[in-house]
Design a protein that fits this description.
about 130 residues; alpha+beta; 6-stranded mixed beta sheet; 6 strands; about 25% helix; about 25% strand
């Protein structure tokens, strides 16, 4: 087992998701989500820009590296994480929806952005 994670991004609840795969840092995925939502605050109303800002925040200085991160689009493309849950940022609804990694129809929880930003997180889930 490694520390791989997947984080999703959707314009709205019915949109096709975009997934960011991280080969490491999975144990900090909720901190990454929190930082990404905060960084994208000025563009919450523009899903394309908000997603770019969020992904940039998570990838950070690693853009030039050949390995470490991958991006996939669509419901069928999904790299295997080392965790059973996947946080999905939904811009229009301003929530982070946590879904089951193996059955993406199962929503484990939904947390509003304001609550996400106010949380004191270490390496735990919402």
């Amino acid at each position: 087992m490694g520390d791989r994670a997947v984080i999703g991004f959707k314009a709205n609840k019915d949109a096709t998701p975009v997934y960011l795969y991280a080969h490491w840092g999975g144990s900090e995925r909720y901190l990454d989500v929190q930082k990404a939502v905060k960084a994208a605050y000025p563009r919450w109303n523009d899903a394309a820009y908000a997603t770019r800002i969020a992904i940039s925040q998570i990838v950070g200085q690693h853009w030039g590296e050949e390995t470490g991160f991958g991006i996939s689009a669509g419901d069928d493309e999904f790299a295997a994480p080392d965790y059973d849950d996947v946080p999905v940022i939904i811009w229009e609804d301003r929530v982070v929806e946590v879904i089951n990694a193996w059955d993406r129809t199962i929503v484990l929880t939904r947390v509003p952005f304001e609550q996400v930003m106010a949380m004191v997180l270490t390496d735990s889930a919402f």
